[in-house]
Amino acid sequence: MQHKVLKVNPSDNVIVALRNLEAGENIEFEGETYILPRSIAAKHKFVTEDLEKGDHVTMYGVLVGKATQPIKRGEQITTFNLKHESEEYSVSKRVPQTDWQAPDVSKWENRTFMGYHRSDGQVGTANYWLVLPLVFCENRNILKLKEAFDKALGYAFPDVYLRQVEDLVHLHQKNGAAGIDTYNQEVKTDSVGRRLFPNLDGIKFLTHESGCGENNQDSELLAALFAAYANNANVTGITVLSLGCQKTQFSDLMDEIKKRNPAFDKPVLMFEQQAYGTEFDMMSAAIKETFKGLIEANKLTRQPAPLSKLQIGLKCGGSDGFSGISANPVLGHLSDLVVALNGTTYLAEFPELCGVEQELINRCVTTEKAEKFEYLMRDYAAKAEAVGAGFDMNPSAGNIKDGLITDAIKSAGAAKKGGTAPIVDVLNYTELAKGPGLHLVCTPGNDVLATTGKAASGTTIILFTTGLGTPTGNPICPVVKVSTNTQLAQRMPDIIDFSCGEIITGEKTIEQTAEDLLEYCISLASGEILTKAQELGQDDFMPWKRGVNL
User: Which CA distances in Å does 378 have to 83, 290, 383, 419, 527?
Assistant: First the structure.
């Protein structure tokens, strides 16, 4: 039978509603009785004791808010009676954690996935050719190449919306406005043709609004971002379009590539429009040489690889009041499993680590790593505050509506994605992981900026929890959408890949669900299944210009 409520940590003074609770209802929990003065929706919280103005609220065992007015026992916390508050943190307070108990992974120690092996030892879960512009002036040409290659090679998606418009055109031509209101289009997924290159998972075309007319830091970061993408194990080769006169030059890109990986040997094809003269000449050359590159890329086949070669990103977006008690802890346990198998995991979204900094500082394996994390957090927070966009402004309207009242509540739940393993390294934006283990990656919380940054650090699969639903994907890294609750998975089946709802209903444990999700990842890494984002062609890409994004 499903429990009505949950206290996440014994030291908490709030209790989470696991289902809708009625006004006047008596809640029996841990030997105490709470009489609710008002109805409380599922995912929201009520206090376990009378609070005065200025009193602290604790959840997940950490400070998450301060009362702005008296709150009676059994009353719900809201944006009207609670504001963000978090503990001060410092490396000087660091108490190193050296007693990590790795989970038992004996059942996976000899397991493999079928991946694409690169010459530098990396193993990809996919095999993509990347086409990118060094400057926004080439976006149109990138999109023309996408249309041509996708349709000719069998990578295009059925245009169900074009069909709807065509149907309405025919109805209008035949009957005028009559019949349009009653028209209903069926969802059809007609095949667009067999792929010419079965061992090439796709050609991915990136566009952006950068590369020129900006400060040097942003242009340098664009080159660094593309270099990191070129180095990702899921990428097999790159075609680069350049106008010629822009700030971000081809030499900048190659310098950044070699800086990250001196052994880099993937093909990089460069085409400069001003050198060719006409668009037609440049595009024709790009098509011919890229096609030759695709022929070679298709010769690579999937081969067995140990699970230690998995590189998994941990992300949340469209979070709700269940995120921190179902899906995020599932990702945390999966991360611990992967780390115990000598694999690599990545926890990012620095604005969503606000309030748990000290715990993360304590988990860093060296003081040097802890100092880097503290510096990046304080630097990011200071820049946000300088423009009036502090981390406390991070929760969205949807987050708040579904129970995440303060940034510290949201962050404490978001940090559960990182499990309990030691933090072996802290990576700035576009920095690559140098070895296995759990890494912190400096990115915004913004869904696309964060997933873009994770792929740059080396992820080959991203696990993305959501309680409200989001279609976010990535061009080169499969993004698995993990729902916090069963209702979301049932309501939005076209974007949700995996549900953790049975944790809320008490049918499964966090550990059982994490093991099921790891099995899903092994199948995905082997090319046996596709994510919903891949099926929809959801290729979101957004460079971070290091302005203030939360």
Answer: 21, 44, 9, 23, 41
Element (H, E) at 461: strand 461-466
Count of all residues that appear for the chain in the document: 550
Residue matched to tokens 């959408």: 481
Tokens of 174: 């035949």
Q: What are phi and psi of 255, to 5 degrees?
A: -60, -40
CB 212, CB 136: distance < 8 Å: yes
Residue 259 phi/psi, 5-degree rounding, is -60, -40
For tokens 């995996």, the residue is 498
Q: How confident is the model at residue 547 (pLDDT cuts 50, 70, 90)?
A: low
Top pLDDT among 386 and 245 is at 245
Note whether 346 and 312 are within 8 A (CB).
yes
**Is residue 210 helix, strand or coil?**
coil
**pLDDT recorded at residue 387:** 78
Among 34, 17, 14, 15, CA closest to 25: 34
Q: Which residues contact 208 (CB under 8 A, 6 or more apart)?
A: 133, 136, 139, 222, 541, 542, 543
Q: What is the pLDDT of residues 103-130, one digit of tens each?
A: 999 999 999 999 999 999 999 999 999 9
- What is the rounded distance in angstroms from the CA atom of residue 370 to the CA atom of residue 89? 11
Residues 6+ apart with CB under 8 A from 509: 503
Beta strand pairing call for 45-47 and 56-59: unpaired
The partner residues of 315 in beta bridges, in order of sequence, read 464
CA distances from 172 to 36, 160, 484 (A): 57, 19, 44
Token readout for 89 is 């943190």
| pTM of the model as a whole | 0.94
* Cβ pair 444, 349 in contact under 8 A: yes
Alpha helices in 472-531 (DSSP H): 486-491, 501-504, 510-525
What is the percentage of the chain residues whose pLDDT exceeds 90?
A: 82
Residues 295 and 153: their CA atoms lie apart, in Å, by: 12
pLDDT tens for each residue of 229-275: 999 999 999 999 999 999 999 999 999 999 999 999 999 999 999 99
